[in-house]
Design a protein that fits this description.
The protein is an alpha/beta fold and 397 residues long. The protein is built from 16 helices and 14 strands.
Length: 397
């Protein structure tokens, strides 16, 4: 028996709705515009948050060599996309206790070559971006907030202070629609430029999305600890073990070059994808999110001060991911897996960026050190309380 690291936030009937998407012959562009109007006249429905970031940079058309200030922890693809546009990511170290950027370092990062800021809300938490927006505005620089891990329902579409707010509905995200993203663009000129470029991108065929939804019907079997344990036992005999198996199963954009990555990103979502996203937004029920938040707070409190919790004191917490920081991650993971809990250091694709050549002062050593010692625990509300208590007993020193 093994409790899986992920519990997909989608029901089997909703997956079946997605898998029948090949029957939907509506035009994806028209379907997308309809949903955008439902969300608001500043909204765009896009293929992914990565696609949105690429589209923003394409619309801004920044000079090669421009600098992009970024949260030091993010999806590595976000930095690779910036580099593919000829830009230089400048990472800002984070406080492991709050997962917020160092304000002093953030202010010192600006120079005449700074053209855009991308700050990420992490682990299901959210922080006040107002102090960062104020600094960015003083330098005439737009600030984009990446809310991919911070969706809390269609009542909240980001800070009104951000130039753009990005929300992801990828496979392991809250209220997943197996992909797609919503972008709220508050700058009229940027919105118009993005819409023009987006209209030229091809639309993914509904059958391709239906195939993806059918695959995730199989992934639903991971919810059974008995079946998942059997799958893990087989996967551990293969190259890379269970970690590589999970990565291959849920990884959204496998690619071996920046060019290949951009080709995958430069699509529009199919009508079937948008139909599923609409269904998820219209039927959003905050009870599971509330239960997940409560479970994370319980774990945080039970662990007490004896175990460091990554983001323990984030200003606003919903615990999309739950990580502890320990001295020997490999040993902790081994103990937890032996006890039936699929803990991992690779529960997510986020990681710490590196400082660019010639700027060692922006090396994010503090958060990199914490991330290198982090272990992600299964902490979803569907896990029985008795199993949570047993996991805590394994973790406690």
């Amino acid at each position: 028996m093994l409790h899986s690291r992920h519990y997909l936030d989608i029901s089997t009937p909703e997956l079946m709705f997605g898998a029948s998407g090949f029957l939907n012959r509506q035009d994806g562009g028209r379907t997308g515009r309809s949903l955008e109007l439902d969300i608001g006249n500043r909204a765009m429905v896009l293929f992914s948050v990565r696609s949105a970031w690429d589209l923003i940079l394409s619309a801004l058309d920044l000079p090669v060599g421009s600098e992009v200030i970024m949260s030091a922890v993010t999806i590595p693809h976000m930095a690779r996309i910036a580099e593919a546009h000829g830009l230089i990511p400048i990472p800002i170290d984070l406080d492991p206790d709050t997962m917020t950027p160092d304000p002093g370092l953030f202010a010192r990062a600006f120079n005449p070559n700074t053209r855009v800021v991308l700050l990420a809300h992490l682990l299901g938490g959210r922080f006040d971006i107002e102090p960062y927006v104020r600094i960015a505005r003083d330098h005439g620089v737009p600030l984009i907030e990446d809310c991919a891990q911070a969706f809390e329902g269609p009542h909240y579409w980001g800070s009104p202070l951000a130039t753009t707010s990005l929300f992801s509905f990828g496979s392991i995200k809250t209220s997943t629609s197996l992909g797609a993203a919503d972008a709220i663009i508050r700058d009229a000129r940027l919105l118009a430029a993005m819409q023009t470029l987006h209209a030229m991108r091809p639309i993914q065929h509904c059958r391709r999305f239906a195939k993806k939804a059918a695959k995730y019907l199989g992934v639903q079997s991971f919810r059974s600890p008995i079946l998942y344990g059997a799958i893990a036992s087989v996967a551990n005999r293969s190259n890379g073990g269970i970690d590589a198996f999970i990565s291959r199963t849920v990884k959204g954009f496998p690619c071996d070059s920046p060019h290949a990555l951009l080709l995958q990103l430069r699509q529009r979502p199919s009508a079937a994808q948008i139909a599923l996203l609409r269904r998820r937004l219209e039927s959003f029920d905050g009870r599971r999110l509330a239960a997940r938040s409560e479970r994370g707070e319980l774990l945080r409190d039970l662990l007490g001060s004896s175990i460091q919790v990554l983001g323990r004191n984030q200003p606003h917490r919903s615990h999309w991911l739950f990580a502890i920081v320990v001295s020997d991650p490999a040993a902790m993971i081994s103990r937890l897996r032996s006890a039936g809990f699929d803990a991992t250091q690779g529960a997510t694709t986020i990681g710490a960026l590196s400082a660019p050549t010639g700027k060692p002062e922006f090396d994010p050593g503090v958060i990199r050190g914490a991330m290198s010692r982090s272990v992600f625990l299964p902490a979803y509300p569907e896990m029985p309380e008795r199993e949570v208590a047993r996991m805590i007993a394994v973790v406690q020193p």
